[in-house]
Amino acid sequence: xxxxNIGAKNSLLNKFVSEIRDESVQQxxxxxxxxxxxxxxxxxxxxxxxxxxxxxxxxxPLGNKSINLPTEDIVLCSILRAGLPLxxxxxxxxxxxxxxxVSAYRxxxxxxxxxxxxxxxATPDLHxxxxxxxxxxxxxxxxxxxxxxxxxKKGVPKxxxxxxxxxxxIGIEYIKKHFPENTKLWIAAIDEKLNDKGYIIPGLGDxxxxxxxxxx
Length: 216
Ligand code: URA
Description:
It contains six helices and twelve strands. It has helices at 13-21, 29-48, 84-93, 142-152, 169-178, 207-212; strands at 2-5, 53-60, 63-70, 74-80, 98-108, 114-122, 130-134, 137-138, 159-168, 184-191, 193-194, 200-201. Helix 1 (13-21) packs antiparallel against helix 2 (29-48). The mean pLDDT is 96.
């Protein structure tokens, strides 16, 4: 797997990341969702640079111009519910993409241990397509890997791009072991560790709750 840590270089992306982390800003859930969406737009633009292109011709009112355009069939898949703002950001740029949705949640066995439960999966055929798999918080990596395994039953994609906002080092190592070698990870920030409940430290808290409110 190749990791593209886009936040490692100075850019406006880090302004968006700083705002979603900042507890004095993140109470504004509209701004939180919009910043995640903006991060999706930036990461989507960055990954567009490695897609396949072919030459095409565009007819203007005054003449013709040749231009290289992406050729891939893209399926954009997100994990409900925290993935929705990131999904929207990516969809703003990949507006012709097909869409897939998976529900994955942590079912706690006790205070510290949990299993990932996938109960809903809606996807088009994935065979030979370019799969963009969006998950804002790459903590343990287990929901991403379990989602990938569930999606494989619906076809084997040609290539996979994983898009995350914040990831932990341990989560990145875990997904590296389970995704094909040619997978690319596009990420805005990498944090060092997880707490004993599997949250990224310093991270930002619960991305789903910050976007949509707390749940039972
Ligand atoms: N999901 C979140 O929303 N936050 C984390 O830190 C880890 C998983």
